[in-house]
Design goal:
Layout (H helix, E strand, L loop, with lengths): L1 E3 L8 E4 L1 E3 L7 E3 L1 E4 L2 E2 L8 E3 L2 E3 L12 E3 L2 E3 L12 E3 L2 E3 L12 E8 L12 E12 L3 E3 L7 E7 L3 E3 L11 H9 L7
Parallel strand pairs: 1-3, 2-5, 3-6, 4-7, 5-8, 7-9, 8-10, 9-11, 10-12, 11-13, 12-13, 13-14, 14-16, 15-17
Length: 192
């Protein structure tokens, strides 16, 4: 793996198998693809990522708190325990990734697409979902959506054995007929 200064990242480039040093200034990256790269730092608080692609990156337990991500893709990434609290996302995709125990609390997620990824015990508390949060072939076991309005959230093509939610905010949640009995059991309904 080649070492490179984070400050030397240039727009419209692809970086593969690079280890990036720590960055001292505010992080603003756009139009960059990172493939199988590593980062010396794990604190990306208040960063900005526009039109970026991350492929095969281990962001486990990294801190992206209060960051902005637009038109960014995570492919085959490890987002286990990653903190995306207070984020603003627009037109982002997470695909073939693991985001168990990640935190998206108090974030604004606009037009977010999830494919073939795990979000078990992930926190989505007080999240503003806008223009769709569509999850396909993904898992959300015990995901926590407390105090989040679930209008435009589509879990119908994904799996969960239970999700945590605020009953008055469930209106508009899109699920399939097999998932309905799981949610109804939270209201004491017995289905035979």
């Amino acid at each position: 793996m080649i070492n490179k200064e984070f400050d030397d990242i240039e727009e419209e480039n692809t970086y593969e198998n690079i280890n990036f040093s720590s960055m001292r200034d505010k992080i603003r990256v756009s139009d960059v693809t990172f493939i199988n790269c590593t980062f010396d730092q794990n604190n990306f608080k208040n960063s900005e990522w526009l039109d970026c692609t991350f492929s095969g990156i281990n962001f486990s337990n990294f801190n992206f708190e209060n960051s902005v991500l637009y038109r960014t893709e995570f492919k085959n990434c490890n987002l286990l325990g990653t903190d995306f609290s207070g984020n603003t996302w627009k037109d982002n995709t997470i695909e073939n990734s693991r985001a168990d125990y990640a935190t998206f609390n108090s974030s604004k997620l606009t037009n977010t697409h999830i494919r073939n990824s795990n979000f078990n015990e992930t926190y989505f508390r007080e999240v503003a979902f806008q223009k769709g949060f569509v999850a396909k072939e993904s898992t959300f076991n015990h995901a926590d959506f407390l105090e989040s309005k679930l209008t435009t959230v589509d879990l119908s093509s994904s799996d969960f054995d239970d999700i945590i939610f605020t009953p008055e905010n469930i209106k508009g949640l899109i699920i399939n007929q097999f998932q309905a009995h799981i949610l109804l059991s939270n209201f004491g309904v017995i289905i035979r």
